[in-house]
């Protein structure tokens, strides 16, 4: 994941900051508790494709 991209990409739902989760290859919005997948090095920034984070993952 290109760290320059992380500086400009935002959560499509709340427009907040996203964090990169290397283990799951996802961009995570802790505010909305959503994780957006990265497929073939391309972030899929659709709320319909995002998965909800568990309460353990939000910590």
TrEMBL record:
Gene3D superfamilies linked to this entry: 2.20.25.10
Pfam families, per the entry: Trm112p
Domain of life: Bacteria
InterPro entries registered for this protein in UniProt: Trm112-like (IPR005651)
One cellular-component annotation, GO: cytosol
HAMAP family: UPF0434 (MF_01187)
Similarity comment: Belongs to the UPF0434 family.
Protein name (record): UPF0434 protein BTN49_1448
